[in-house]
Structure formats: C-alpha cells, structure tokens
Specification:
Chains A, B: GO terms for molecular function: DNA binding; DNA-binding transcription factor activity. Chains A, B: Homodimer. 2 copies of one chain form a homodimer. By secondary structure, chain A is of the alpha/beta class. Chain A folds into 2 domains: 70 residues, Orthogonal Bundle (Arc Repressor Mutant, subunit A); 112 residues, NAD(P)-binding Rossmann-like Domain (Rossmann fold, 3-Layer(aba) Sandwich), CATH 3.40.50. The first copy, chain A, contains 9 helices and 9 strands. In chain A, the strands form 2 sheets. In chain A, strands 5-6-4-3-7-8-9 form a 7-stranded mixed beta sheet. In chain A, helix 1 runs antiparallel to helix 4 and helix 2 crosses helix 3. The longest helix of chain A is centred in the first third of the chain and has 19 residues. The first copy, chain A, is globular and about 60 Å long. Chains A and B meet through helix 1, helix 5, strand 8, strand 9 and helix 9 of A and helix 1, helix 5, strand 8, strand 9 and helix 9 of B. Chain A binds a DNA duplex (22 and 22 nucleotides) through helix 3.
Chain lengths: 215, 215
DNA sequence: GCATGTGAACAGGTTCACAGCT
DNA sequence: AGCTGTGAACCTGTTCACATGC
C-alpha cells in the first residue's frame, strides 16, 4: 500500500526534504502562505528542479502557475516521510552528549520523543535527567515494550557502542541512530544511521588548508 | 604548492576519509600493521576500489602486492586533509549542546581544540565550563586574534545563529560549523558546514515507515 | 603472486527544457 | 501567463577490470 511513485529514493533527497521541512516551518511562522520552487530553492541553496524532482518521488503537491501552499506542502512531506507522528526513542548512554540530547527540546518538537534513558553505570542509574530516571541498560527489552519504543539512540563511548546495540537489538528495536564514532554490527532488517560530525570539522579544516596552500 | 592530483575532491570522499582515519586509528590501537583495501573496505562497508580511488586523489600510499601500512596511511590521510595539526576553535552559544561539546574530550583528541567559549547571555558570562570562562560574544574579534582561532562553532538557538555568524565573520574567522537548524549568510570565502542530525532521524523514521507500509 | 593504481564502463543523481495545468 | 511536473541530456561519483610494480 505504498504511495511511492518510484522504488528507491536517494538518501540525498531525504536529507533535502528534512531541510525543506525546516524552512517551511519557519516560513509558516512568518505567515508565508504560498512559495514557488524557485523561491524555496534560493533559501535552501539548491536548484529549483531539484526540489520539484524530490517532491515528485512522493506525489504532486504543487499548483501549476501558483506554487506550493506552505502549510500543505509541509504536512505532505512529513506524512510522506512518516514524521507526521511521534516516534518514541530510547537513549542509551547518559554522558555529556546524552544529557544534551535529553535536554534538547527540539527533538520532542520534531516528533522524536526520548521516552527512556539507559546506562549501565550504577552511579548513573536512578539519577533523574530532564525528568527521566536513568534505567539499567539490561532492562531495555521490558522498557521498550512498555514505553512503545521503536528507535534507539546510542550516545555511549565508542567501546560500549556495540554492547548498547546488542541490547537494543534484543529489545526488538526497529532502527538505531548512533553518535559513537565506531561501526556497529546489527541484523540487516534494522536501519542504522551513523551521526558523525567530525567529517564536518575535517571538511572545514580541509577547505581552509586548500585555500591556504594556494599561496 | 598543492600536491593534489586532481582539482576537485568530492565531499563524499572527504566524509569517507574521515571514516578511514577513525578505523585506522582503532586498528593501530589493536597493533594491526598492514591492511589491504579489501579488508579496510569490509570494515567501512564500502567498495575496495572506492578506497583506492579516494586515496588516489592525494597520492600513492600503498605498496603493491602488500597493502597499506596502517600507521603510515593514517598520517598520510591526516596530512592530506590538513588535520595533522591542532585547529583552534571558538564555540558560540553555551547551551546544552555547547556544554556537551566543550566537555567532549574527543574534539581535542582529534585536533579540534575549543580555545574559547562565547555567549551573549549576561548570566552565562563569567561562568566556567570545562575549564573555560564564558566570554561575551562581542569580544570575539579580540579573542580570536589573541587565541589564534580559525574555526567558529555555532551552538546557539536558531534565532541567534545569524548574529553569532556575524560576530565570527567580523572576527575574521576562516570557517564555520553550525549546529543550529537554520541557514546562515556569510561571505563566499568562508566555508560553512551545516550539522544536521535530524535528517538521520528522518531517515530512520522513513525506513521503518517504508518497511511497515509494505504490509 | 598479489594488492595497488587507474582508464574505461556504468550507475545514479542533477540540471535542462519544455509540455501540461490552473 | 506562470509555475509545476517530467522525460531527456548531462554530469559526477562509483564500480569494474586489468595493467603495473613490489
């Protein structure tokens, strides 16, 4: 019952759609009602046909001769991506980064609700962070079921990432987002996303170096 | 005096090189001395020729019939990317995320040293976070010069990101990495990298949705 | 012999140009 | 008239296959 027009959607498209949503929501707050692909493209710094192509994967959302209704387009994209609802997440690893994510309201705003915080450090278990009690990672299976969690977020140090992943797999999680700088092994049916901000740092360093080397 | 073999290097290549460095460093810790492109490829989950092509942009680092010397390759890549030295960074916006980054030792380990923390909130100015005193953002120009800072890291809320960017531009920064979910405007000669972990969340949500819709 | 380095073939994503609607 | 939707052209990045060199 998929309403996709095409089979495979480029990951770059998903990334851009996330940006469009970001921009559309801020446009909506500014009470902009209609926008053309050309205008939206300028804001997002992409090619207008790129936007139209990206949207074409999912359907026809615009009005010819007019443009796109901001509100409509926004909810259509979110619906197409499956982010028109709340996703419950389990965060594993209550360190600095974990705490920052737990406190970051934007996650909830965008539909990703951290419903449980887990750690295997006995000193952390029981502590309350941002209204959530830290629970022993071993209890993931029971809690995932109870709290209706579908996504796992790994924020452990690299050496404990695989163990965290194992707990999540055992708990029957459907997808994992890991911030730990290591590759992890999980069964094929589980989607894994690696968040790696270092390549952004590398890229900036490289670009600066390139420019400096030009002399 | 560039030692690049080719003019433009795909951003995807840079991203993978960052992964290779990550993996090579962990291999080195495990005392692995030599590795073939095939083996490295399996770990990084890419195609072996991909690795060889990525490296070919910068030179010849391998030994035919043998493979790559882990230690050598690691330092060669870092040198090629310009991350074989320390980069001083200014962090603007001492909120939850900013604090997490300030405390995250990995940044320093990888050569990105946060040398100054800035905020415009008078309640935060003067506070000491992870050994750094929070300084008024207005003082960026003087501090950037004094501390020899080349990279700016924006961790403000979205509505203050542009202002932070302006301060950084005025301070003559060379590159910016922003974690705020908004587009910012800066002069062309300044490299900007947008860190956006939401698309990872979107992607996981989308993949799960796809799988669920298959029924 | 064996794994790298690389030109040639391929695949996939992006842009163009215009047909199709409103 | 104007902007979307889309097939075709283009271009960039990936994979293949083999020549090259240790």
């Amino acid at each position: 019952m998929s309403n996709l027009k095409s089979e495979h959607i480029p990951r770059a498209t998903i990334q851009r759609l996330a940006i469009y949503v970001q921009v559309l929501e801020s446009l909506r707050n500014d009470n902009v009602e209609v926008i053309s692909s050309e205008h939206l493209a300028r804001i997002c710094d992409v090619n207008p046909s790129q936007i139209r192509k990206d949207l074409a994967y999912f359907g026809e959302f615009g009005v010819r001769g007019v443009g796109y209704y901001v509100q409509d387009l926004n909810s259509s994209i979110k619906k197409a991506l499956g982010v028109d609802r709340t996703w419950n997440c389990a965060l594993v690893g209550v360190g600095n980064l974990g705490r920052a994510i737990l406190r970051h309201k934007v996650f909830k705003q965008r539909g990703f609700h951290i419903a449980g915080a887990f750690d295997c450090d006995p000193f952390k278990i029981g502590e309350v962070v941002s209204g959530l009690e830290v629970i022993c990672s071993r209890r993931l299976p029971e809690k995932v079921k109870e709290l209706n969690i579908e996504i796992g977020v790994i924020t452990t140090p690299p050496e404990r990432a695989q163990r965290a992943a194992n707990y999540l797999v055992d708990a029957n999680i459907k997808g994992i987002i890991t911030f730990a700088p290591t590759r992890i092994n999980v069964p094929d049916h589980i989607t894994v996303e690696y968040v790696d901000f270092f390549h952004h740092f590398f890229n900036v360093a490289f670009n600066i170096t390139l420019k400096d080397r030009e002399d």
